[in-house]
Structures are given as C-alpha cells and as structure tokens.
From TrEMBL:
This is Cupin. Residues 42-106 form the Cupin type-2 domain. Transmembrane segments: none annotated. Pfam families: Cupin_2.
Length: 126
C-alpha cells in the first residue's frame, strides 16, 4: 500500500512541455502496475492558460475541482465546471485549460494510466 496526502505534499511549479503559456502548478502521486504507469495530480490553470494539443498512449481522466474551464478534441470544445468528469481515450488528440477571459483559476485532478515505455505526443497550440 502507498498512501500520499496530497494536501501536504510539496507543490511544484514546472515548465511542462504540454503547456502553451506559463508553468503548470501541480502536486500528485505515482505508482506502477502490470507494465503501466499510473499518475494523478491536481493541476491549476490561471486565466488564459491551457495545454497544447496532445495525445496520451493510455487513458486520461480529468475531474474538475474548481472553476470553469474548457476541454477540447479535434471535433470541438466543451465548457466544464466543478464536479465534471472527462475521459480521453488512448491516442485522442485534445487540450484542456482555462478560458482566455476567465476571472479565476480552473483546476482539475488528472488520472493517467499509460504503458511505461510509451511517451506523450505533444502537438500544436490550439
């Protein structure tokens, strides 16, 4: 068993390559099983921040914890808010983030299950 208290774990500001504007703020946990890496983190986007289009080799699930944001794939955009659960299928090109005219931050927890020998594919900015 591996238990991590996300409330008290050290916060990290990173210059993640998926980010289209400034750094993501995240904290999370990681473990491995059955040849897959499983990760979870809470990510906060300030107004106007969003990821670039990207695709994961595994499943990505987002759970919105604060604010109103946007999730999108090649077929369109959806506004999401606290309590929404979003599923991106393996290989689905998508982006997520805060609205350009937002007055507050947008946060979600992501859960990723990916084969440990495959990498995230980063594409263009939306």
């Amino acid at each position: 068993m591996d238990v991590t208290n996300i409330q008290t774990s050290e916060k990290e500001v990173s210059d993640h390559p998926v980010q289209a504007t400034t750094a993501l703020i995240s904290d999370g946990v990681s473990s491995e099983f059955d040849g897959n890496e499983v990760r979870a983190a809470e990510v906060t986007f300030r107004p106007g921040e969003r990821t670039k289009f990207h695709a994961h080799p595994g499943v990505q699930i987002l759970y919105v914890t604060e604010g109103v944001g946007i999730v999108a794939n090649r077929n369109g955009e959806r506004e999401v808010s606290e309590g929404d659960l979003i599923l991106f299928s393996p290989g689905e090109e998508h982006w997520h983030g805060n609205k350009k005219d937002a007055e507050s931050q947008f946060s979600h927890v992501y859960f990723l299950t990916e084969p440990e020998d495959e990498e995230l594919e980063i594409l263009e900015s939306p």
